[in-house]
Structure formats: C-alpha cells, structure tokens
Amino acid sequence: MYYYWRSTSTYSIAIHTTARTLTLYRNGQWFKSYPVAVGKSATPTPKGTFKIVNKSINPGGPFGVRWMGLSKPHIGIHGTNNPSSIGKFISNGCIRMHNKDVIELYNLVPIGTTVKIV
C-alpha cells in the first residue's frame, strides 16, 4: 500500500502597501510576514483581491529567482536583483521580495492562492 503526503493547509496573502509588508496566513491565522517593495507613485501597486495564476522559477532579469503572476495582468510577486529596493516605493506596480523570502513563499503557496492588496 502506498501513502502520499498532501498539504491540507489553506494559504492566503495580504499585502499592505503603505507598511510595505506581505503577510502570509495559513488556515486563516497569521503565519509569517515579509518586507516588500511596492509600486512608486507613478505606477502604484493595484489594490484589490487577486489570485496567483502562474508561477515561474528563475524568470531572469529584475525578477530575481521566482515569479508568481497575479490575476491582474502584468503584476506579480517576485524576487529582485536589487535587494536594496526592499522596503521602498520603487517598482512598476509589482511586489518585490528578497530572493530568500520569495523562494520560501513560492514553495508554500499554490496557484489559486488569494492575494489581497490594501
């Protein structure tokens, strides 16, 4: 007989743009928070509720080591090749994370995870 492990945890993400934090919830409870960079005033991070619709390893360029695309076209949660940008209003609307943090998040959350940006 074969057994397999399957996560029964449900994850959701909340991004607070003014605080520049991404909070991960597991089964509705706080799990972990990360510092992020968000959109500058000319290209702000959009507010609303979205879903992760695609994921990519090593997308290259300014996207660092991971990409998680949102249901809002051209917006995603990704790593960065400029770690000094974290904590700032600097992106073109995307949510940037330290590469080590985005790897951890990428490995936890599946496609379909809800992302609420406020």
Whole-number total of structural domains: 1
Low-pLDDT residue spans: 1-6
Which sequence of SSEs, written as H and E, runs from N to C? EEEEEEEEEHE
Strand order of the largest sheet: 3-2-1-10-5-6-7-9
Helix-residue proportion: under 10%
Give a short account of the largest sheet. 8 strands, mixed
- What is the SS-derived class? mainly beta
Strand proportion, as a percent range, falls in 35-45%
* Full CATH superfamily name: L,D-transpeptidase catalytic domain-like
In total, the number of strands is: 10
Gyration radius over CA: 14 Å
CATH class category name: Mainly Beta
Number of helix segments? Answer: 1
Active site: 78, 94
Keywords: Cell shape, Cell wall biogenesis/degradation, Glycosyltransferase, Hydrolase, Lipoprotein, Peptidoglycan synthesis, Transferase
Protein name: Lipoprotein-anchoring transpeptidase ErfK/SrfK
InterPro entries: LD-transpeptidase, LD_TPept_cat_dom, Transpep_catalytic_dom
Description:
Pfam families: YkuD. GO terms for molecular function: glycosyltransferase activity; peptidoglycan L,D-transpeptidase activity. Keywords: Cell shape, Cell wall biogenesis/degradation, Glycosyltransferase, Hydrolase, Lipoprotein, Peptidoglycan synthesis, Transferase. The chain is mainly beta and 118 residues long. The chain has a single domain (11-117), classed as L,D-transpeptidase catalytic domain-like (Beta Barrel). It is 8% helix and 41% strand. It is built from 1 helix and 10 strands, in the order βββββββββαβ. It has one helix at 99-108, and strands at 11-16, 21-26, 29-35, 38-39, 48-57, 66-70, 76-78, 89-91, 95-96, 114-117. The chain has an 8-stranded mixed β-sheet with strand order 3-2-1-10-5-6-7-9, with helices on one face. The chain is globular. It starts with 10 loop residues before the first strand and ends with a strand.
